[in-house]
Structure of ATP-binding cassette domain-containing protein:
Amino acid sequence: MSRVTPSIRPGQASVLHLWEVTVRRGSTTLLDRISWNVDADERWVVLGPNGAGKTTLLQIAAATMHPTSGRAHVLGERLGAVNLADVRPRIGFSSAALATRVPPNEKVRDVVVSAGYGVIGRWRERYDAMDDDRALELLDAFGVAHLADRLYGTLSEGERKRTLAARALMTDPELLLLDEPAAGLDLGGREDLLGRLTRLAADPLSPATILVTHHVEEIPAGFTHVLLVRGGAVVGAGPLGETLTEQSLSKTFGLGLVLEQRDGRYFARAR
Ligand SMILES: Nc1ncnc2c1ncn2[C@@H]1O[C@H](COP(=O)(O)OP(=O)(O)OP(=O)(O)O)[C@@H](O)[C@H]1O
């Protein structure tokens, strides 16, 4: 598949715009001239095998890492030209790395509400009743409001994932980043979470969303676009229906795959 041709400047609706973004660490190239644009009304899946560069890409999108070369605009701000701390509160981010940093003795409602201050773990910040109401509303949207007063450390893997997804939305972000939100969930937990993400995707008021996964089965119905990555480079990018094919998926994972689609969901197996 040919390299995606980028426009030079981000458009009006662009929330993320990468142009020839390369990330190197020593002699290793983590990302190799990635060009990619995400508009405000789009819901993207980033799909690729282990080590493809997905988490690195998400760190650029989260404004927590600079490219070694190339240009990255996040929410209209060019990385390197602005203080990244100004951009970060406008981004909701849920990841396995964050999950391990939440103190186990933190109340679930506080895990969510403390996102308003960009901190992990409630300390001396003052939150008003509206913040607490919003945190409860979001916990409810992910089906875990009944756990609001439990300690985070007592939650199951699936309950933690849902709590962190609620936290990611607490600041009403303009860009929502979900790194493997369904990893480690059982079948029921995965399907429940995907149903909630499908409803989120369908809401026109929801932020632009980027979801990283290894599995096509974890693509929520209603997501609109896919970025396929392998070896730090783009294999394909565009509307899901036309970009995610047996051929492109096989190329992304380096093996012959059969891909099936039913009711907006995808299923893959080795040929
Ligand atoms: N500081 C570093 N120095 C050298 N190589 C690195 C460094 N950080 C990451 N890498 C390598 O870069 C590649 C991309 O890593 P990344 O975590 O972005 O991949 P990923 O697609 O998220 O993988 P996974 O699906 O396994 O989580 C991996 O091969 C990783 O080992």
